Amino acid sequence: xxxxxxxxxxxxxxxxxxxxxxxxxxxxxxxxxxxxxxxxxxxxxxxxxxxxxxxxxxxxxxxxxxxxxxxxxxxxxxxxxxxxxxxxxxxxxxxxxxxxxxxxxxxxxxxxxxxxxxxxxxxxxxxxxxxxxxxxxxxxxxxxxxxxxxxxxxxxxxxxxxxxxxxxxxxxxxxxxxxxxxxxxxxxxxxxxxxxxxxxxxxxxxxxxxxxxxxxxxxxxxxxxxxxxxxxxxxxxxxxxxxxxxxxxxxxxxxxxxxxxxxxxxxxxxxxxxxxxxxxxxxxxxxxxxxxxxxxxxxxxxxxxxxxxxxxxxxxxxxxxxxxxxxxxxxxxxxxxxxxxxx
Length: 343
Ligand SMILES: NC(=O)c1ccc[n+]([C@@H]2O[C@H](COP(=O)([O-])OP(=O)(O)OC[C@H]3O[C@@H](n4cnc5c(N)ncnc54)[C@H](OP(=O)(O)O)[C@@H]3O)[C@@H](O)[C@H]2O)c1
Description:
With 343 residues, this protein is α/β, with parallel strands linked by helices. The protein folds into two domains: 8-137 and 312-342, Quinone Oxidoreductase, Chain A, domain 1 (Alpha-Beta Complex), CATH 3.90.180.10; 141-281, Rossmann fold (3-Layer(aba) Sandwich). Helix content is 34%, strand content 24%. It has helices at residues 22-28, 55-61, 92-95, 132-136, 140-154, 168-179, 191-200, 213-221, 235-242, 267-271, 282-288, 291-306, 323-332; strands spanning 8-14, 30-36, 44-53, 78-86, 99-103, 115-118, 123-125, 159-163, 183-188, 204-207, 228-231, 250-253, 276-279, 314-319, 338-342. The strands form three sheets. Strands 3, 4, 5, 6, 7, 14 and 15 form a seven-stranded mixed β-sheet that branches. Strands 10-9-8-11-12-13 form a six-stranded parallel β-sheet, with helices on both faces. A two-stranded antiparallel ribbon has the order 1-2. NADP nicotinamide-adenine-dinucleotide phosphate (NAP) binds at residues 54-56, 140-141, 144, 164, 166-169, 189-190, 193, 232-233, 254-255, 257-258, 280-282, 334-335.
C-alpha cells in the first residue's frame, strides 16, 4: 500500500565502477534518473532529506571497504528522511510520516538519492527534537562510539586514548568519557586539530608528526594503570601506540584510515603486559544487540545531542548535483566536520 503514485521517478548519485584512485572514483560519480515501479513486501519507501558522507563511503567507492555492491549502484550508508509509502505486509497507518534515520549496507541502492527503499530493521525512528542535520549522521558514528565505549566501561578504564581524535566518532567518545569521568588522550596528525581538541577539553593531545611522539605517549601513559585505545588509523601507528601502553590495556581497532595493515606490535607487550588487540564492527554490534538495548542507546544519544553534550559539526552542505565538489572539500578538511547531501 502506498500514499504516493507509482511509478516514481527521482534523482540519485550513481557509482559506475569502483576505482582504487580516490580522485577517479569521485570523478566517476554522476547523477542518474531512476524509477521505482513497486515497493517490495515488508519494505518502506523513504523520502530522503539528507545523507552523510563518511570515511566508509570513501573506502567503498574505491573498492577498499568490506562491503561490495553490484555496480552501477547508489552509494551512501546513512541518512535521514520521512517514510512516504509502505510495501504489502506493513501498516501504512503506523509508518507513513515517521521521521527515521537509516543505516544500510546491503547490495541495493544506498542513501545518496532522493528516495530509498529499506527494511524496518535498517532504520530507527528519531525524536522530533533532532534537527535534519543531527538525524542525518545519528546512526553510524554515535552508535559506533557507544558500542566502542562499552569496552572502557567493562574494563573500568581510567583513561581512553583516541587515535584520529579529530573525527566525529571521537566527538561522541569524548562526550561519553566526560560523562563517566574518564580521562581523554587524543592523537592527531595536524597542529590545528590538536589546538581545537585542547580547547574542547581533552586532557592531553599528542601529534603523531611530532619528533618524540612515542616517548611523549609513554610519559603520558605512566599516569595510568591501564587504558583502552580506540584506533581508526591502523598501519604502523597501531604498533607504536601499543608499545607505549601500560600492562592490561586494550587496543580496539575500528578503522583503517592509513590503508595499511596493523604492524609493529612488540611480542613482549602481548606476552608479559597482557595487551589485548580487538576489532569493532557496528553491523555486528547491531545484529547482536537486543531491540531494548538499541532503543536505550538511541534515547541516551538523543538526549546527549539535544543537551549539546554531544556536538557533531557539519562543515559542508551540498545539493545532490554538487557531489564531486562536496567530497573534494570533505577530504581536505575531515576534522572540521561532516559533509551532508540535502535532497
Ligand atoms: N568499525 C565500525 O563499525 C565503524 C563505524 C563508524 C566509523 N568507523 C570508522 O571510524 C573512523 C572515523 O570515522 P568518522 O566518520 O568519525 O570520521 P570523520 O569525522 O570523517 O573524520 C575523519 C578523521 O580521520 C582523520 N584521518 C583521516 N585519514 C587519516 C590518516 N591516514 N591518519 C590519521 N588520521 C586520519 C582526519 O584527520 P585530518 O583532518 O587530519 O584529515 C579526521 O580527523 C573511520 O575510520 C571510520 O571508517 C568505523
